[in-house]
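Notebook entry, structure prediction.
Reason for the run: the old model in the group folder had no record of what sequence produced it. Starting over properly, with the input documented here first.
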Amino acid sequence: MPATTFEQGVDAVTTQNRSQKSERRLAAQLAAQKAAEAKRRRQAWAGGLGGVAVVAVLITVFVLVGRGGEEADPAASTPSAGTPSASAGGAGAPLPEGADPALNTKPVVEAGTGELTKLAVTPLIKGTGPEVTTGQTITTNYVGVFYADGKEFDSSWQRGEPASFAIGVGQVIPGWDQGLVGVTVGSRVQLDIPAELAYGTDSSGGRPSGPLRFVVDVLAAQ
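New structure, fully documented this time:
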């Protein structure tokens, strides 16, 4: 039997309601998806900021540690009681005013002769500056050789930088402490040092043993 107009109206309303419910469910699903996506974006953004913050902290720590290491270098390079240590400046460091230009050239150091029994200080170039006093920090260029054969074992010239250290206070070998106090700035002196005033006769520690000869240029004292 054909549907009545009323039944047709009811069917139409029912169909419309179902369509509206479907649209609402679809809208709700879309809204939920958008919300979930927005949440993921916020989490990713927050995570990215967190990563940047961590990296920033790590960089800051690295820089601070690096600066700390740089500040510690002067203490680490303090001369020991055994030998002078290198400092910045280079072997061609500026000479004191009025100094002999020969101090710009590395000296040729030959072997000694005879038995060396006591410290000998021989002026090679006389400087016109003030005398070195105990406790001052002096800057020097030097060449060290074995007294017996003239073989070089150390040289600030080869390293390309002078050496700075306190003098007369036990930071270097006794032959330097005793031989350089009283030398005038701008001088070049030869120090012939017996073993007992140098590193002794035992070479097992890697240091030069026996009598030694140094030629030392005193470039500054303060």
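Summary: Residues 5-76 form the longest helix (72 residues).
The old model has been moved to the deprecated folder.
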